[in-house]
Structure prediction request, 329 residues.
Amino acid sequence: MLQDSFGRVATDLRVSLTDRCNLRCSYCMPPEGLEWLPKPDLLTADEIVRLVTIGVERLGITEVRYTGGEPLLRRELVDIVTRTTVLRPTPQVSLTTNGIGLARLAAPLAAAGLARVNVSLDTLDREIFRKLAHRDRLDDVLEGLAAADAAGLRPVKINTVLMRDVNDHEAVPLMRYCLERGYELRFIEQMPLDAQHGWRRENMITADEILAGLKEAFDLTEDDPVERGSAPAELFLVDGGPARVGVIGSVTRPFCGACDRVRLTADGQIRNCLFATEESDLRTAMRSGATDEEIAERWTAAVRTKKAGHGIDDPAFLQPSRPMSAIGG
Ligand code: SAM
Prediction:
């Protein structure tokens, strides 16, 4: 088991398949992009599958989420998913993606056993999309969403980050768009994880603000909090349900006490928290001939030292040197 010193058990593994992305969302990276990880540092598909297998077979991982960067850019994605879904005990396998390319890949991914997708969508306005993501790709994202739904990757979940004076007027239109299509919408508070270090608390749209905006147009009632478990989103029934909306108050309503996540970066580092400043290098161990047992021991030790909370409110808080795109959101 991957247990930390506070008794939390990590069962949900987030695996970044690449740090590259085809969008440049301003809360994540600068318009010119970043210096990408050198290819030899990236785990190969075989190395990823080996580590995921150790996690599932030896360490109690029950959910595997492939992410990035943009995971659809990884050519071996369908193969990696296929090799993950045949593991025993069978993990639930999902994907966090910006949706570009999903129109082509949704059906093969569903056939490979992928359970569901979270697609990031911050706006329905083409011009705002172009400004926010520095690419004119809104139509590709919307096509990808429709394809995921048609392929049965349900419920299709949408992740939205609202930014002040950019897209903060879009909570209600996005909610309507999702209600009409049966997508589940989740708003995420913007976190200090951008490569440019431009995050300012006063610019962040808080969970309270998001809820107040939604309540002007919809009747929201809190969904059963027991069902939430370790899920980061506080869920609300919309207009009596069954449709729901989630609000992930990562900064103002932290849920670290119930966290069950552990992360593997595209270059083979274990991170016990999004905001960790230390990592454990499984790639070097693996390439130096470590056995599965030795890797499992190293991984267990990395989780044991997980801190009680992310500490964003602590005056001594230090933003991790890796940006979100290189960690795997
Ligand atoms: N490219 C994929 C995507 O767009 O979903 C996967 C990686 S992306 C880093 C994963 C999620 O992190 C997205 O939903 C994105 O909106 C979110 N994200 C990125 N930077 C963030 C930040 N600074 N604060 C909050 N969420 C962020």
